[in-house]
Write a structure and sequence with these properties.
The complex is a heterodimer of chains A (396) and B (262). Chain A has 396 residues and is mainly alpha-helical. Chain A is built from 15 helices and five strands. Chain A has a three-stranded mixed sheet. Chain A has a two-stranded antiparallel sheet with strand order 4-5. In chain A, a hairpin with a 2-residue loop joins strand 4 and strand 5. In chain A, helix 5 runs antiparallel to helix 10 and helix 7 packs antiparallel against helix 10. The longest helix of chain A has 27 residues. Chain A is globular. In chain A, 47% of the residues are buried. In chain B, the strands form two sheets. Chain B has a six-stranded mixed sheet with strand order 6-7-8-3-9-10, with helices on both faces. The chains are: A mainly alpha (396), B alpha/beta (262). Chains A and B meet through helix 1, helix 7, helix 8, helix 9 and helix 10 of A and helix 2, helix 3, helix 4 and helix 5 of B.
């Protein structure tokens, strides 16, 4: 008994949900990070490449944090996350561009929009309302993809979600030949362009030359998603997700409704993908089928894994790192490297090879991610939460 | 005759060609401790899994307080008031003892998605209540407060068993199913657990269904014992009857032994 007591007192594990960093230091770090994110962009050229990278990184952080709820918190491996990006982007395209050229008898339908968009044909709805629509559409889509995966686990969930992502991607490509109501379903590879710029009350119109306002909108989205992530993690729902992730049989025997709890994870996770998708559609000024390919799902998943599954700050860092590598280091800094040493290709052609390489290195050196989440680390190291028991099939 | 809290009629479970539970009829009176015993592989745990909704019986019917719960969903059955522990402890290892017990109260909580995000006053109040209630449940089963924030996997075996019971109790069940709760415990811990079971019945008015191998525990607390062998009910009755029942002795010790017993 004395031995056991000694072991117990020596393992001073911090209370769950916290890290080993003391609370004061964590608060200070968080405050410093938020302050830096707000202040530093004020001194960066508003039309420059650095600002462009900041905007993209922020949008990717939103997406990665959304996926983190599904994969990191609830442990449902989703390989089709690009579908939610696509649905969010198309929501923006449908309700904030000239895509539906015949809408309103050719004069267009306008709702709470100002500037040139108010006179153009097509449907033009205020950006904030489109955000709400995108969240609704992707939440529903998330639940729809959630339903068939409910009776599955592990790798099988991954396969179904992968297929879902592919279906949405294919529909995006071929939708230009699906006609109805005087318009086509998507604009295929040609893309919907231009897309309305963000139009917020009391702020000058957003343009593609001044990127700083875009950044602050993206940062606001990041803050909202961060807030939701933290609150959900330390809630009844967050506990239920961890319980389901570790042991479905015990969790449901303890009164956790599996279907509802999993669908909540899919729904909220998907909503953030949609939010980010709507923002990116407006920012990139196009909704193009080529954006919605399988590789993008893997790209977002790589952010989550690189940062640390389930770790909120880890995922933020992972998203920023991969965004910078993808949008700055590879195309702008090292792109001519192979050419310089006499090889006949650009580095951009190797992007995914590089990400794959990074992930392999991570898996060897630090499989729990850059900033690991304590529980996930334990699951990796101590083999907890191995899903061994299987529910009986409930099909008739 | 006291009221029955649970009734199972003709429960049968087949896995392919194997009949794990064969036409078992069984009932639990209110405020009683009853046991199921039997050799390994007799179908005891399968029967538990049927009662708690993890398995769907091939045939038969289960009613809890008059309501049909045959092949109901596990979480719904839990919500109705049947809580359980597992033979091989199934705590959530990366959660603290306290959080594990808080999970037990999930079905009694109301906080939804938006309440959790905005942490509304009712939600905050509920979290606080649930935390306190969980701490009480842990104290009740004998886990002292300095262990509440320890992760479940770092607890000793006996403590893990107790936390699992606390987790089940936290939902304020009316019927508690314990699957070999004293397995791996030393005699003193078994005695404490036996007392705890009696306390639960007497103080809280719980009915307890026990699967157990330790005959001292079984004979000490059970009002009624059901014996399963190869999925069939081969005997039932009070501890004295079971102790001297030749069929039971045969199932446990073989035919020769039963003949030699006077």
């Amino acid at each position: 008994m004395a031995e056991a007591a000694a072991i117990r007192t020596s393992s001073t594990a911090p209370p769950p949900g916290t890290s080993r960093v003391p609370k004061g230091a964590r608060m200070a770090l968080t405050a410093a990070a938020i302050a830096a994110a707000i202040i530093i962009p004020l001194f960066i050229d508003s039309g420059g490449n650095v600002m462009n990278n900041l905007v993209l990184a922020a949008a990717y952080v939103v997406m990665a944090l959304g996926l983190n709820i599904i994969v990191g918190f609830a442990g449902l491996l989703d390989l089709g996350y690009v579908a939610f990006f696509a649905i969010g982007a198309y929501t923006m395209g449908y309700f904030g561009s000239g895509f539906h050229a015949n809408a309103g008898g050719g004069d267009g339908i306008h709702f709470l929009v100002t500037g040139p968009a108010a006179k153009l044909p097509g449907i033009h709805v205020n950006f904030l309302i489109i955000c709400v629509l995108a969240v609704l559409a992707t939440t529903v889509a998330g639940m729809i993809i959630g339903l068939p995966t409910l009776r599955l686990r592990g790798d099988y969930i991954a396969i179904v979600t992968l297929a879902f992502g592919e279906i949405i991607g294919r529909i995006a490509i071929n939708g230009d030949e699906i006609h109805g109501f005087g318009t086509s379903l998507t604009a295929g590879r040609q893309g919907i362009t231009p897309v309305d710029k963000i139009d917020l009350p009391g702020i000058d119109r957003f343009t593609s030359l001044e990127l700083r306002p875009w950044f602050y909108v993206a940062l606001m989205l990041v803050f909202i998603v961060l807030f939701v992530n933290f609150r959900l993690r330390d809630s009844r729902l967050g506990r239920a997700w961890i319980a389901l992730r570790e042991d479905e049989v015990a969790a449901s025997s303890m009164g956790i409704p599996m279907v509802k709890t999993k669908l909540m994870a899919y729904g909220t996770g998907a909503a953030f993908g949609g939010l980010s998708g709507a923002f990116l559609a407006s920012y990139l000024n196009t909704v193009n089928a080529d954006q919605f390919q399988f590789s993008f799902s893997i790209f977002v998943l790589a952010m989550v894994i690189l940062g640390g599954l389930g770790s909120i700050w880890g995922v933020v860092v992972g998203a920023i790192v991969l965004s910078v590598i993808n949008n700055y280091l590879i195309p702008d800094v090292f792109n001519s490297l192979p050419g310089d040493i006499g090889l006949d290709f650009d580095l951009t052609e190797l992007s995914f090879g590089i990400f794959g390489f990074l992930l392999v290195i991570m898996m060897i050196l630090r499989p729990e991610g850059l900033i690991p989440e304590r529980r996930r680390k334990m699951e990796l190291v101590e083999d907890i939460g191995v899903d061994d028991a299987v529910f009986e099939s409930r099909l008739p | 005759m006291t009221d029955l809290i649970l009734e199972a009629a003709g429960v049968t479970k087949r896995f392919g060609g194997l009949t794990a539970v064969d036409d078992v009829t069984f009932s639990i009176p209110e405020r009683s401790i009853v046991s199921i015993i039997g050799p390994n592989g007799a179908g005891k745990t399968t029967f538990f899994n049927i009662l708690t909704g993890l398995y769907k019986p091939t045939l038969g019917r289960v009613a809890f307080q008059g309501a049909n719960i045959t092949s109901g969903r596990p979480d719904k059955i839990m919500k109705l008031g049947i809580a359980r522990t597992f033979q091989n402890i199934r705590l959530f290892g990366t959660m603290s003892a306290l959080e594990n017990v808080m999970i037990g109260q999930h079905s009694r909580m109301k906080a939804g998605l938006f309440g959790s995000i905005f942490r509304t006053p009712p939600v905050r109040h509920e979290e606080k209540y649930v935390r306190e209630h969980a701490a009480e449940a842990l104290e009740y089963v004998g886990i002292r407060s300095h262990l509440h924030d320890q992760l479940a996997i770092n607890l000793s075996y006996g403590d893990q068993r107790r936390v699992e019971i606390a987790r089940a109790l936290a939902s304020d069940p009316k019927l508690l199913l314990l699957d070999e709760p004293t397995a791996g415990m030393n005699p003193q811990e078994s005695d404490e657990l036996t007392q705890l079971m009696q306390k639960l019945r007497d103080d809280r008015g719980l009915a307890i269904l026990l699967i157990e191998h330790d005959m001292k525990v079984i004979m000490g607390v059970s009002q009624h014992i059901t014996v399963l062998d190869h999925g069939e009910k081969i005997a039932e009755g009070g501890p004295q009857e079971i102790r001297t029942n030749p069929q039971v002795i045969e199932a446990y010790l073989g035919k020769q032994a039963s003949q030699e017993t006077p």
